[in-house]
Structures are given as structure tokens and as C-alpha cells.
Design brief:
Strand order of the largest sheet: 4-5-6
Number of helices: 19
Shape: extended
Order of helices and strands: HEEHHHHHHHHHHHHHHHEHEEEHEH
Distance between the termini: 98 Å
Helix content: over 70%
Strand content: 5-15%
Length: 479
């Protein structure tokens, strides 16, 4: 047997030599290998999916809590099917309660309240209106009843759909308008064939109330996630990232190192400000529906947060232009960069300090006593940079390009021997102008934050804290 297994097929080559002939794999073997490879790939995909899911749950445990809350709500509402007394109380429409929980339960409390209130209001209005139209159509006789019901569906559905194009309605009542159209159409169509329309409407409204109430209670009482708090944290984070990006851009432009990979992540942090408009508008809309919670009163000025973000985006656009200047910093004059380094860095540091102070004020919800001083420092730094640039512009002269050509080009003569071409002047002058523009636009952010602090009634800094700060300043001066 071993001799048979060890036997090999050999083939004779043209040159007289022979080689082993590899046996062809059978169909079963190929299928087995393909299936084995498929299983390995499937296991690898499942493993990667589980790793990503684990990382998401580990980094953001509130998402796991939200999933558990949805499971709790659905488990409780399913009791209306499992328990006979509850099932008899709501009739055969208990499924509407389950559907309501699935549809309206959202991640934040504000989003859940928005959908719950819109669904309840839309259902009530459409139900009462449909019953009234059914009574009018029923009094008109069998001939005119379908005509009246069809005409009412056409008119009300068309009018309600048109209101969804109105910005104010779309922002706050779009979901309720859609539920109104759906409920009115279903009740109107069902009423034409159902004998006891009032009983059917009562059962469906009661199950929707059960589902809505359960969602609201679960969302608020079990580890609530507030849309207003999320918006508040997002604005604070954007303020800090804006300050970080500005400092990194200025330091990178005037640094001698060519390696930008270390500060790249910090420099592009401003993109979070540019890309957060949609999420901020959504959270601000949901925050208006939330009750008072934590440090936020019922009439907290959430709309002003959008103005803060708009002012920050105008600054972020200028920072984006700064990043493009960094890519051309090798074309700028090193002599001119050295003369403007300290002034630009002073403007940048004072501006970023204002942003950090605003972020601290928003985080602690207290008015800062340092803001006026920081603004004065920023204005002084801007004035110093403007004066320096005017002095350099005053040295702009016309120097012949060469002897053969009569063309002339502007240059800056910094001394008797140093002449800077205009091509090397423009990049640094543009960068310095953008830094001053950002420092000027920051005042818009300051004004809106002060307006928010006034409307939200931010508290003044504690007297003890101010005394400690003054003592530390005095010690530093003495030392």
C-alpha cells in the first residue's frame, strides 16, 4: 500500500529529462477549499464587526444605554399583548402602541418629546376632524357620502402637505403634519366600511397615548440624554478647537521645521466647526421641546447657540485660508517672516485666549471679569501688527529689474543691502492680514456669548475666586 501511495506520475520532456506530474485536484477538493475560504472570510468579517461594535459601546456608553431603554420600553408595551386584562382593555389595536414606541423613541429626550407631542397632536386633530367629516358625509346620504369624503381627503391632504414647505412648520411640526395626513386618510377610509367609527378611533387613540407616555417616561427617568446639553457641549468643544487650530496654524507658519505631521490633526480641528451646522440646528430644534433640566431653564436661549456657531464658522473659514498659506510658506521671505513673527503670534495668542475664556464661561455658565482686559490686549496686538505692516509698506520702492529691460517691480528695501521682491512679500502679508481678520471676527462671537449670558442669567464669578486670582497676581509681581 505504501508503494502504491508513493507512486508518482512522471512526464518525459523534449530534452530527455523527466518531471513529476502533479495530480489534478478533484471537484470535491476544490469545493471544500472554496467553502473553507468562505468560512474564514465570514469569520473575519464577523470578528471585525464585533470589534467595531465593542469600540463604539466602550467609547460612547450612552448609546448602549439608549439601546437598553428601547428594549425596556418595548418589553413593557408588549405586556398589552401577553396579559389578557390589558389586551381586553385596548381591544385588538395593541399593535399601535408597539408601533408608536418603535417610531417615536429617539436618542435624546428632546427628539423623543418632539415626535411624541407631534404624533399625539396630529392624531387627535386628524381623528376629530375625520369623525366630523364622516358625520357630515353620513348626513348627506349614500350618494354624496363618498364624494364628500374623497373631496375632504383631497383638500386637507393637499393643504397639510403645502404647510410642510413653510420653514417654521417644517422645523417644528413636520412630523406632526405627516401623522395628521396619515391618520385623517386612514380614519376617513376606514369609516366608510366600519360601523362603529367612534369605538375604533377611541381604541387607536388610547393605544397611541399609551405608547407616547411610555416613551416619555422611559426617556426622562432612565439616564436621560438631553439634546440641549449635547448642543451646549458641542459649542464649547468647537470654541476650544477653534483656538487650538489658530495657535497651531500661526506657530506652524513661523516655525523652521518642515515636518507638519505632528500638528496636522490640531490644525484641521477647525473643520469640526464647519461640518457641525446640520447637527447643531437639529439639536437646537429638539432642545426647545425639553423641560428645564440641570443648569438650563425652560426658556433657555437655544436659538442664540446657532448664532454663536455661525460666528465661529466665519472665523473657521479664515483659518482654512491660513492652512493654504502654510503650504506656500517656503515661497515667503524669511526676513519678513522674522520681522512679523512676534506680532502675529501675539495677536494669535490673545485671540485664542479669548476663545478659551469664552469656552470656560459657557462651561461654568458664569460671566468672566477678564474678558474686557483680554479684548484690550487683542486690540493692542492688532494695532501693533498694523503699525508694523504700515512701516514695512512705507519702505516699498520701485527698483529696476535689470539693465536690459525697462520693466520695474516693487520691492521692500529693509536695509542698504537687503531687497525683498514683491513675490515674497505677498504670502506673509496675506497671512498677517488673515490673522488680523480672525481677531476682528472673534468680537462677533464675544457679543453673542455675552447675549446668551444675559438671557440665560449667567452668574458673576465668585468673590473668593476673584480674591484668589488677585492674590496670585500680586505674588507673581512681588516675586
Amino acid at each position: 500500500m505504501d508503494a502504491i501511495n508513493s507512486a508518482e506520475w512522471r512526464i518525459k520532456m523534449a530534452d530527455g529529462s523527466s518531471e513529476n506530474l502533479a495530480p489534478e485536484s478533484s471537484l470535491v477538493t476544490r469545493m471544500y477549499l472554496s467553502f473553507e475560504q468562505f468560512l474564514k472570510n465570514l469569520i473575519l468579517i464577523v470578528q471585525k464587526f464585533l470589534e467595531k461594535s465593542w469600540n463604539i459601546g466602550k467609547n460612547e456608553p450612552r448609546k448602549v444605554i439608549h439601546c437598553l431603554k428601547v428594549g425596556i420600553a418595548l418589553s413593557v408595551v408588549s405586556l398589552f399583548y401577553y396579559m389578557r386584562p390589558l389586551y381586553n382593555g385596548v381591544g385588538g389595536t395593541a399593535m399601535w402602541a408597539v408601533m408608536t414606541v418603535v417610531v417615536v423613541f429617539e436618542y435624546t429626550v428632546g427628539a423623543t418629546l418632539y415626535k411624541c407631542l407631534n404624533r399625539a397632536t396630529g392624531t387627535f386633530c386628524a381623528g376629530f376632524l375625520a369623525i366630523g367629516m364622516h358625520w357630515i358625509a353620513n348626513q348627506s346620504g349614500k350618494t354624496f357620502e363618498p364624494i364628500i369624503m374623497g373631496a375632504s381627503i383631497f383638500i386637507l391632504a393637499s393643504a397639510a402637505t403645502f404647510t410642510r414647505f413653510i420653514p417654521a412648520v417644517k422645523a417644528r411640526f413636520d412630523y406632526g403634519t405627516m401623522i395628521f395626513i396619515l391618520t385623517f386618510t386612514l380614519v376617513s377610509i376606514s369609516g366608510y366600511r366600519v360601523a362603529n367609527l367612534l369605538n375604533m378611533a377611541h381604541e387607536r387613540v388610547s393605544t397611541i397615548i399609551i405608547g407616547v407616555s411610555l416613551c416619555v417616561i422611559t426617556s426622562i427617568l432612565i439616564f436621560p440624554i438631553w439634546a440641549g446639553e449635547e448642543l451646549h457641549k458641542l459649542v464649547i468643544s468647537n470654541l476650544e478647537k477653534l483656538a487650538e487650530s489658530l495657535d497651531c496654524c500661526v506657530s506652524e507658519y513661523f516655525s523652521d521645521s518642515e515636518d507638519t505631521t505632528i500638528n496636522t490633526k490640531k490644525m484641521i480641528a477647525f473643520k469640526c466647526v464647519l461640518n457641525s451646522k446640520a447637527s447643531e440646528e437639529t439639536m437646537a430644534n429638539f432642545a426647545r421641546w425639553e423641560p428645564a433640566h440641570g443648569l438650563f431653564n425652560f426658556q433657555h436661549p437655544w436659538g442664540k447657540y446657532l448664532k454663536i456657531s455661525a460666528s465661529m464658522r466665519s472665523c473657521a473659514c479664515c483659518i482654512e485660508a491660513l492652512t493654504s498659506c502654510i503650504n506656500q510658506k517656503d515661497q515667503a521671505s524669511e526676513l519678513l517672516k522674522n520681522q512679523l513673527t512676534n506680532a502675529c503670534q501675539q495677536v494669535s495668542s490673545s485671540t485664542s485666549e479669548i476663545l478659551k475664556e469664552l469656552a470656560l464661561n459657557m462651561k461654568t455658565m458664569r460671566k468672566s471679569s477678564r474678558m474686557d482686559m483680554l479684548i484690550q490686549e487683542k486690540n493692542s496686538a492688532i494695532q501693533e501688527l498694523e503699525t508694523l505692516m504700515e512701516q514695512l509698506t512705507g519702505l516699498l520702492i520701485i527698483q529696476p529689474k535689470n539693465v536690459k529691460d525697462d520693466q520695474e517691480k516693487p520691492v521692500i528695501r529693509t536695509s542698504s543691502t537687503n531687497v525683498i521682491p514683491l513675490v515674497e512679500i505677498i504670502p506673509t502679508a496675506t497671512f498677517a492680514s488673515l490673522v488680523m481678520e480672525i481677531a476682528t471676527r472673534i468680537e462677533g462671537v464675544v457679543d453673542v456669548v455675552e447675549e446668551v449670558s444675559r438671557l440665560a442669567k449667567f452668574k458673576l464669578e465668585d468673590t473668593e475666586m476673584m480674591i484668589k486670582q488677585n492674590k496670585s497676581v500680586i505674588k507673581n509681581i512681588i516675586n
